[in-house]
Amino acid sequence: MTLSYENNQKLLIFQVFRDFKSFLPFLRIRFKDLISEKTPFQLARKVSFMEISPSIFIGHGSPMTAIETGSFQTDLINFAQSLKNVNSILVVSAHWEQSKPLQIISAPKPELIYDFYGFPDELYRLKYSVSGNPDLAKHIAKTLERKGFETYLNPDRGLDHGSWIPLSIMFPEASFPVLQLSIPIPRTPQELFKMGKALGHYRKEGILLMGSGNLIHNLGHVAHQVRVGSINYTNFSDAPVEEWARMADNWIKGKLNKFQIKDLLDSHKMISNFKMVAPTTEHYDPLYFILGTKLPDDPITHFHESIQAGSISMRCFALGN
To answer: Which end of the chain is more exposed for a tag (fewer CB within 10 A), N or C?
Structure first.
């Protein structure tokens, strides 16, 4: 059968449209979205990034990191500048423990919480004008609920210093919307791991998942070392590292490198002096959440390693590229 020029043109258009439609699922974008009035950010959330966003653990340390300079700040800045696939950030911070249900900040413009005391006035004058994302907060809440968690959208809660201080170092222009998820009371390592596992797939949509704490955090011990003169407030960064802290930090690093997640979930049993490492667990617990976000074939990168004040681990690592 001979096709006319007009029929040939129609056939060509049909083939192009058919091929284009077959390609759309790989972008996770529907044809009607291409002609919608969605904002670029809303549309971007439908796109599967060629590079999956990593999940990260930040050893945030003292609030003074916001105004100090050194290897910690340099390493965080360099890591952040290497990221090319982030459009929002979800933080689990040691400084937001909350009775159940799980709470998610849903404010369109979350305020900052200056939840630290006795520091220089300069710290309390710092600003970080970051936006939130109420729609994404609702989406995350629904995802958690489908996995059996009760949730509450909190429009009044602000960002604590475990969230906004490291982010202000990494992303000083406050380029990305920031959400925060509470650490539940009571909790188990397995429950925190399950929370991370429920949300790990958001990395494929450009959501940077961040746990903020410290893998060794014993301020009572640090205060004792100051009282006896072993360290002072002027040499926190240069204080000699105590052997028990070095051994614990190396044990954690070794387990991370081998992805021995079961051992890490049992850290309180596996580390003989865990009560020294984490006399209270809120700074250690974000680790369990981040472990849950691991995706198959994730590499691990330790982008900062140091121990301050003799025993506070500032280790920062990323899962994924």
So the answer is: N
